[in-house]
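PT: before anyone asks, these are the final sequences, not the draft ones from last week. 626 residues across everything. Please model them as a single complex and drop the result in this thread when it's through.
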Amino acid sequence: MMQQIKIVWLKELKDAVRDKRSVMAAMSYAFFGPLLMAAAFYMLISQLTSESDVEIDLKGTEAAPAFTQFLAERGIVQRDKPWPAGREPIVLEIDPEWADKIARAEPVAVTLTADFSAQKQRADIRRVEAAVNAYSSQLGSMRLLMRGLDPRLMQPLDLVKQDTATKGSRAVLLMGSVLVFMLLSVFFSGMNVAIDISAGERERNSLELLLSQPLTAQQLVWGKALAASCFAMFGGVLSVILIPLIFKFLPLQNIGISVDIATAHVFLIMLLLLPLALLATALQLFVSFRAKSFKEAQTYISFLLMVPMLAVFGVEFARIKTPILYYLPLTGQHQALLDIIKGENLQYAAMGISAVATLALSGLLLALIGRMLRSEKVVFGL
Amino acid sequence: MIEVKELRKSFGDVHALDGLTFSCPAGQITGLLGPNGAGKTTCLRTIYGLLQADTGAALIDGIDAQQDPLAARKKIGIFPDKFGLYERLTAREQVMYFARLHGMDSTRAAAATQQVLERLDMVAIADRRATGFSQGQRMKVALAQAIVHQPKHLILDEPSRGLDVMSTRILRDLLRELRSQGTSILFSSHVMQEVAALCDQVVVIAKGKVAAQGTPQELCELTGESALEEAFVKIIGTDEGIAA
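LR: through. Structure below.
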């Protein structure tokens, strides 16, 4: 029984390893995916952290050189270039009677004109406001001091902000998408092999002879599924190793995020992906054994790839929070991975149960495929 | 010994097999002769259990392929209607794969593979991948796959198509040699010369039934013709689907 599975498994593995297309497919997803992601994050980080100058229209600066100087120190400077199309100008107008009013200690009007609903300009507007407020309170303090009063009189309360967000929990936002990548890697990497050993076998007319050999359809299916799972797992392992490695080179600390997956956790993730790799293969074989050609199978499988994506993103966006998710195939692995990244307490029992559920579902699918291959309708496409 | 008893098989309204009965004794070559669509391939597929007969049975040494397909398949070598090679494997690896599937351990499988490759004069191409193989070379690989485990029964579906003269001779010699070793051989064909040259017994089938059965001589005497082709035409009553 096992011997036959092993023979099929080894043969399919040898066949697949020689197929450059399959190997490239397994590698490219694991390699280029994280690289692409890293590039995107790199852009995001540099955008978030760059303290470039805010260029706005300043009017009446000649009346208040000290204020203008102050603004320039805070990176708010006169704009030389015209405003790009579709953007409302931000204008800061200083009262021409600045010097007189300051001398008399009267409030001076400083008018900020801008589209306050514009998302893109919100950060710029806030910086201008903060700078104006800072100058105002600085001036206020000086006036109090000159009158012999403690400026702290004006600050009866002191709001102390303590950010309890750990670097880990902030990372969840970012790593959520990376996780999806790891999960999907097992779906992508074995895909080509899965098609080749099912629909491909039919296309090159070798299915009939193979089914006429002294082995059960069940043994055949398991041998093939294990071979494709090896490829799926290969891609999974590669992405689990590469993603933390690539993220080490990103200046994530600049945005207050640390992505640090302990080595033990890396192995745990691989272990979690193992049953998922079998499930991915079983699903792919299930559809592509029905297809008559490689092309047809590819079409079906591209639809099939939506399943894990929908499951993972759906849970994420719908904010479904139920403990059942921990025990189901696919979502169970997803939740476990989230916990690992968040650094929360790991629910090993739930992981075990979802692994068993995943394996059971795969076994069921493979049994169905075996039954399908005993049906002459499917085999000969009658 | 392959026995086919009262096989019936329909695909929808089409009666592919309609009470087919014949047997192939050990140490004899039986030719299954019939026009296109007569049910030759359906009959062979039913014998190795790939198709389920509606009624009737196909027995291989008394084992019903419908009841115990694995045991039946262990006893037969198959050269199917459609055979595809694994393009990325060498000829030796393909043949070895089938030897292993028939339960040989790797040393025995390697020895049996070497033997069959030598027998079929394939040593020169044995370690080449199948991608560039000619039709004849592909046929030889398929043939080697069918006989590597030295089955007592050999079923071939139109084995000589696409073979050049030299390969056809190798095939004929091989079949005769296997016959002398006591193998029962059943092959389908519509090439008259080949059937006349090789077969101890000819089963002519038309419309899923046995139309006539006997040695090539007997068939000729039966119809009063001197050539098997003419006899065949008379038996099936039409000259459709014959390749001389």
